Amino acid sequence: MVLPPGQDPNMQGLFGQDTGIKLDLQTASWDDLQSKITTALIAGTAPADVAEMDWSWTGQFAAAGWYLPLNDVVDAATLEHFPGKANFDANGNLLAIPSTNDFRVMLINRKHFTDAGVAETPKTLDELVAAAKTIKEKVSPNIRSGCPFRPPKAP
Q1: pLDDT averaged over consecutive 10-residue blocks of the chain (155 residues)?
Q2: What residues pair up with 89 in beta bridges, in sequence order?
């Protein structure tokens, strides 16, 4: 099994207890994970029996023909729990199943924006960067701001 970092350290033992199967767990950063999976598939070998990947790789991997459809493996009742399943369908073939259903939000400190004279909430990444620079300049250079583009469990 190849997964991104942040996995339960007891996963291997618990999986073995529950199933009787020895789990060979390998973890890698998201960038390394993509490289590892892609390199293995280009070479015509499977990187693992199970691999977690970013949903955005689905189209790339489907175009390369690296999937076996899951249509005959996953029943309709199970799929009802995944409202985003259409994102993993290519030409009627179910290619993956999401392991989590999440969404991203942006929180802002309205007082910092007001104190800096930024009246409008940013609607684009460029506006967000400009607002952060203005806040640092006009309110305090010690205010921390960030825009993480990482998976939910990343540090």
Answers
A1: 86 90 90 91 90 83 85 88 80 81 72 93 88 90 65 38
A2: 94
